[in-house]
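Support request, please re-run this one:
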Amino acid sequence: MKTFAASALALALIAISGCAQAESKGRDMKRADVEKIIQEYLMENPEILREALIELDKKEDRAALAAVSDALFKDPRDVSIGPKDAKVTIVEFFDYNCGFCKNSSDWLKGVMDKYPDDVRVVFKELPILDGRTKTSRNAAKAALAAARQGKYTTMHFSMMNERSLTKDRVLAIAEKAGLDMDKLKKDMEDPEMDRQLEDGLLLANRIPSLTGTPFFVINDDFIAGADTKKLDKMLEDALKNS
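Re-run finished. Output below.
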């Protein structure tokens, strides 16, 4: 539906522009002639329309991000690392069972270590694979419960380095991290945990390009996937322009 609407809008804009130029150059030029010129031009240069549609999609996505800015960057329930006035804020949506999320976790940790004063990272638990894995939601709740004991990053990166996240394995990771296990289990049952995860899913649904994990928002731009070269370039640009 979005692609169809974008195509219709792009064609309309091109047609309007062409008609306006034709009218200014010659009043005797018929509308049919103008439409024929536009059609022939697009057939010969289809990449122009493709580029226009890509740019239109980007603008729509950035507008969607701006509309949910507070939920992205200012939700007090989210775990964030780095100064609030950092030059760059990175928001990551992830699932602990997502292989691509695991692949990009070292990149994110490296960024946190390299730019402790310039970059703030906001972690968004998004257990979208739970329907298949049956363990993603439990892992997310364990991480959020660990945050209440000041052990979020330890738990987070430990689980990102694990292939299997059964309930027993998650508890073993938590115990190794030195967490109070009775408190952890009690906090994981807190209804607020489920509420926060549901809110995260609702937020993700309001971002058109967020169709999987990982999904990174870097200031007012975004990137889907774990292409660390592209992430480096986007981060570099954000730091330079901030």
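Residues 31 and 82 are 59 Å apart (CA to CA). The first helix runs from residue 2 to 25.
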